[in-house]
Amino acid sequence: MGASITTLMIDAYSMSVDNLHSRMHVLDASGVKPLDAGWVPQMPASKKRSYARYTMAAVELLGMLVQLERKARRMTAQDMADRLGVDRSTLHRLEKGDPKVELGLAFEACAILGIPLFEEDAQGVSMRLDEAGKRLALLPRRVRPKPLSISDDF
């Protein structure tokens, strides 16, 4: 365990790919063990996320509104993507209703295009934000489930 990650990264750049596989090591129960030449690191399989129909419909509607307003303003997809600071493919995913697109990105697109989400102006949003903060202050910080009381009266 003498080499740091930085040293290994620098070594990796200086070695050929074939040589890299022969020098990589992995820890197992018995200590450090060299990897097989055919080993390729794998990402863990991600779980398929399911969304409610309402959620999917709302995300699709938001995407359609973004696309409709962008086209009504005669703004190209590339121009809009540049304004958002993303690739055109990410904008396309937003407009097609992909629920995995960042929420902040969707809100930013709406702000750029003038699509109202909660209120027409920033002052209305600020008032609702203050109201929500006051209501949250009245509630407990943590919510615990009520203990189940088992009644054996029959």
TrEMBL record:
Residue span, HTH cro/C1-type domain: 66-123
A family per Pfam: HTH_3
Keyword tags: DNA-binding
GO terms of molecular function: DNA binding
Cross-referenced InterPro entries: Cro/C1-type_HTH, Lambda_DNA-bd_dom_sf
Matches recorded under SUPFAM superfamilies: lambda repressor-like DNA-binding domains
Protein name in UniProt: Putative Xre family DNA-binding protein
